[in-house]
Amino acid sequence: MAIHWFKYASPASFYGLAGRLAPWFAAAAAVATLVGLYIGLVLAPTDFQQGDSYRIIYIHVPAAWIGMFTYLVMAGWAAAGVVFNTRLSGMMVQALAPTGAMFTFVALWTGAFWGRPTWGAYWVWDARLTSTLILFFLYIGYIALRASIDDPRRADRAGAVLTLVGVVNIPIIYFSVKWWNTLHQGASVKPGSSSMATVMLAGMLVMAFAAWMYTIAVSLVRVRAIIVEREQHSAWVGELLDARAPDDAPGTSGGVAGSKGEKAR
Amino acid sequence: MAVLRRDLLLTLRRPAELMTTLFFFVIVVSLFPLGIGPQPELLREIAPGVLWVAALLASLLALPRLFAADHADGTLEQLALAPQPLSLSVFAKLVAHWLTTGLPLTLLAPLIALQFDLPASATGVLVVSLALGTPIFGAIGAVGAALTLGLRGGGVLTAVLVLPLYIPALIFGAGAVEATLGGLEASGHLSLLAALTVFTLAFAPWAAAAAVRISLD
């Protein structure tokens, strides 16, 4: 069994697997997005308290969930990288970080748009908002650290240490922020505490599934780009690029790696 | 122990660096009354936060002193090769660093608290909270400083990495002083802060040692 588990830890074999899996996850994401938006925007009734502005939860809540979840997945890959010293783990952490940061930012952004009509303010120092903001800072820290280290292996390991230190701190930060807020004053407005209608919940869950599938698909595509960029000196990437070169216009084989490399940033 | 003695000696032989950190603290704190206005009630209200944030920033600026010079002259490599565990050496460096940064900041704080018209009880809590909190700044900062050794834009990068992780210490530390100002018991905040200090001191040297090793090869 052990052989099967580690076969795909090699970037060369994972490259193919990721290429085969990515379209499926992308298709699942597209279908789930359409279904979720249909449920959310057409089937779900207008909320009697918040009007139509509540519909932003179909983006906001999935984004917030995936933003948090992605950091945990990153930490899991980072731990795997520290334990097994596999190159792929670092690449996966690198591939996940931009998507996680994007979703966290989307959660903050849509939350501000929802907060304005509902709470009357774009931003309040609510415990949940603050901890999401700090989570965003942690993503930015990881990306900044990664960007300033030229040696990718060193960047992998430094990023792993940072991610793991961050994940240990997340519960501490979360509770400290929560206590900080409640010690000062009770939150004046709580996010829709009324029980949710089944249709709304279904829409939200489908959208969360879509966001999850999207994250997997994008990370797989991104990790393929990272693999090609980092392993470009190895024989199999050379063969891959050579095999692809005749299809493209002459002289673009270098351009393939280059454009993919840009996408990876 | 030898590391501790050596680091202390090195810092004390160059007192200007130490003084710069302290004066940075004093100057930053003095900027707030100038920017906000001299109303005593307002100043008393913001004093805990301002003093804590200023102490945090001063500790942040002192972080490069932890490893940078030793990294440049190869001492750090020798420490990594030494038979003693590197995390122990890092811990000794942290103690030396705290004695020359955190402790002076803590001792200086009551003087500045006078400028902000803090009552004596709150000043006492401020000193205790800073004494508990500054080791956290050093210990978490050590991880960030070690990760960014020899990198472009090291200082700013260190700040981006460690500032989010400082937030719990800031909340409990400033919260303790604020609670005292508001006539509440500060012991809850202080206990949490102490727990955080113990937790950080137990694990951060370990992570910092791992980070030092990464930066060395």
Which percent band covers the strand fraction of chain B? under 5%
Spatial gap, N to C terminus of chain A: 35 Å
Name the largest protein-protein interface in this structure.
Answer: A-B, 26 and 28 residues
Percent of residues of chain A in beta strands?
Answer: under 5%
Distance between the termini of chain B: 26 Å
Mean pLDDT of chain B: 88
Residues in helix, % of chain B: over 70%
Task: Report the oligomer.
Answer: heterodimer
Structural class of chain A: mainly alpha
Helical content of chain A stands at over 70%
Can you write the helix and strand succession of chain B as a string?
A: HHHHHHHHHH
How would the global form of chain A be characterised?
globular
The radius of gyration computed from the alpha-carbon positions of chain B, rounded to a whole number of angstroms, is 18 Å
> How many domains is the backbone of chain B divided into?
1
Structural category of chain B: mainly alpha
Helical stretch count of chain A?
9
Write up what this structure looks like.
The complex is a heterodimer of chains A (265) and B (217). Chain A has 265 residues and is mainly alpha-helical. Chain A folds into two domains: 21-219, no CATH class; 231-265, no CATH class. Chain A has nine helices and no strands. Chain A has helices at residues 2-7, 11-43, 57-84, 87-119, 127-147, 152-184, 198-230, 235-244, 253-264. In chain A, helix 3 packs across helix 7 and helix 4 packs parallel to helix 6 (152-184). In chain B, helix 2 (15-36) packs parallel to helix 7 (102-115), helix 8 packs parallel to helix 10 and helix 9 (154-181) packs antiparallel against helix 10. Chain B contains ten helices and no strands. Chain B has one domain (2-216). Chain B has 217 residues and is mainly α. Chain B starts with a helix and ends with a helix. The chains are: A mainly alpha (265), B mainly alpha (217).
